Amino acid sequence: MTDRAHAAHAVGDEAGVWSGTWVAERLGVELTGDEALTGLLGLALRRNPKRAHLLVSHVLGKHVPQSPCVVYGHGVALGKRVRDLLGAEAAARAVVLGYAETATGLGHSVADGLGPAPYLHSTRRAVAGVARAGGFEESHSHATSHLLLPEDPALLAGDGPLVLVDDEFSTGNTVLNTVRALHERYPRTRYVVVALVDMRSPADAGRLDDFAREIGARVDLVTTASGTVRLPPGVLAKGQELVARHEAAATEPARPAAAPSGSVARVDLRWPRDVPDGGRHGFTAADRDRLEGALPGMAARIARALPAGARRVLVLGFEELMYAPLRLAHALEQTVGDGVDVRYSTTTRSPVLAVDDPGYAIRTRLVFPAHDDPDDGPGERYAYNVAGAGFDAVVAVVDSVADTPALHAPDGLAARLAAHVPHVLLAVVPSYVPRAPHAPERPSMLPEPLRGPAFSSYAPDEVGWLLQDLSEVTLEAPTEEREEAIQRGGAHYAESLPVEYQPSEQYQELFHAALEASAARLARAVGAVTEVVLAERSPRPVLVSLARAGTPVGVLMRRWAHFRHGLDLPHYAVSIVRGRGIDANALRWLAAHHDPADVVFVDGWTGKGAITRELAAALRDFEASDGVTGFDPEIAVLADPGSCVRTYGTRDDFLIPSACLNSTVSGLISRTVLRADLVGPHDFHGAKFYRELAAADLSRAFLDAVSARFPDVTESVGAQAKDLLSADRTPTWEGWAAVERISEEYGIHDVNLVKPGVGETTRVMLRRVPWKVLARSGAGADLDHVRLLAEQRGVPVEEVDGLPYTCVGLIHPRYTRGATGADGKAVTL
């Protein structure tokens, strides 16, 4: 079937009315582009601070029930086009990656069309026993959005083309973030982006080519149709008002009074043993062959279980579980013949306004609670265009993890369906459990922590470093060379070290002035966060600082616990690396010597929360790989301006003087290093001890200046801790939202290049290639050192009203060594 024939078959318009008419007339939204667009897409509204309208696909099988041959046919056709584009040899080496939740079935169908390619889709469901091979964020999400959990760790490691499949290509942010994250870990020379529709604006259209040049790879785009959405001025506010007005009046469709509640029964699919339920952990050509052989039998069992006389049947999938229900629906469609109209759609997490109008894409909405114990907690789930659609029977397909009491509760999905459909059949697909990998042999003993004065200028009882000493290895590279390598994907930032910044006399004077001015404030924050930890986490916590910014804070918390409570707390420093996780060998050492439940991870401050997320994901992976439970991912920080954690001393964004310098305020220890030729599977991550900088060391001076203020702030710490313990400290992640906004407003399109807060901005100035600094209007002495660094490096400081942070540092977004200009100073784009 051709794409045009697919589109014609897909149109679900009533009396010739386009299902985007209602929104278009009220908001002035206009869909322009290929002739097939209105056949492929309708419009609906959702409550969203960034975009009120929603493009609703007629051919995806998510929100709109559709013929399964149409849904499957569109994906297979796209896969065949990719095969033609790549050629037989490259197609045979390709890997297909789909996006959760909307494109899991589409991506799988593309893989079927491509040929023997293995398939993997991202997931929002962490699975015990499966280590994470990667993860990335969706640009609009405030939580870790996508995990990659292949059973075979080598699935993504090849050099063949990577085919990324999403339902729509709107701005390109999610795809570019994915490629950037994966290219850093698994570099390759060719990518293909596949989507049903390309809806990029003219401003976004050139970014894909720019990005391809930046990473030195070819990136192609394959879509069924293309166009854009034209939005009139003020559409967002108008759309939000329209949603609020109609949502207040919207309710679940009432079941006709005369209609009895439908029946609910199970049908045994006899799903083939060892065939995965989808691509969450990978799906190979052999898996596909076994499934193809079993589909006719499973479809026949469903057909026999349908009520006599059923003429309209919906096969309803479940969130990420899209492919298995789609293939069952497709096989059922072929089994029952033309006399029965089989449709396919799935439940979803996405809240969308329902309006019962022929010109609106979402006519009805069923609401029910989540029933698979999701990682992000309970919440509402939805099934659209099911109620009132005239179905005689619904075959609800879920995996066994989701076959829970919540599914069968009075307000659960089964009951909601039975209130509107005479017959409900429940088909349960066994959730695939990957085979446990053989645990690698590990040495029986890990080395004891390094301590000063042999390693670091701290006293030996202040901190034990769970690191290996790489002091004799040359790891430093010029900042410009490191930045170019990092942004081009040729190196990870943890594989080398920046040359240590040596402060000028003027800068050192600023440090001492800042320390004098802020010592009491720091002491209050140290005392407050320590009291919260002792009250809520453990009466005798094991402090584990995230090296190196967390280490001075951990030492100060240890000192406060001794000063105020006479406690002699253990304190260690471990390495965590963005994109690589926490040092698993350090966790093994901690688990062997302490109760993991007593461990409290400590850092200096939060920026946008990337390390917070990294730690949570890494601990899940560690629990799955080692079976060790009890480590709490909640980080305790001195300052939480990004609202990323619950345990903090303050949420103010102020100058923490330890952020002003590098090793000379952190025990003369470098940032941590993770490089394959230096750090083996049984080694701790590495770091250097800069003994030669002893004359400039201010580490103990910083600690002593803050500790000296402890007696002065005891009373105020008690009041501050009491307020914190009684307050609602739920993270809002407002910092992440601000970073996303700044990334887009300044045309950076990469949240990793936006560093919010005084501490992170200082790091940009000391270690990276800065582009500009955004400073909150009226920010005072907290930014004196930033302004001095900016002047020294030729970096503009731009004052911004309403900035949620005191300042934000922007790394040069298109960096090559030429970007700094002939004099080594930053230049503007």
UniProtKB/TrEMBL annotation:
InterPro entries: PELOTA_dom, PRTase-like, PRTase_2, PRTase_dom, StiP_N, TRSP_dom. Residues 456-706 form the Cysteine protease StiP N-terminal domain. Residues 40-227 form the Orotate phosphoribosyltransferase-like domain. Gene3D superfamilies: 3.40.50.2020. The keyword Transferase applies. GO terms for molecular function: glycosyltransferase activity. This is Phosphoribosyltransferase.
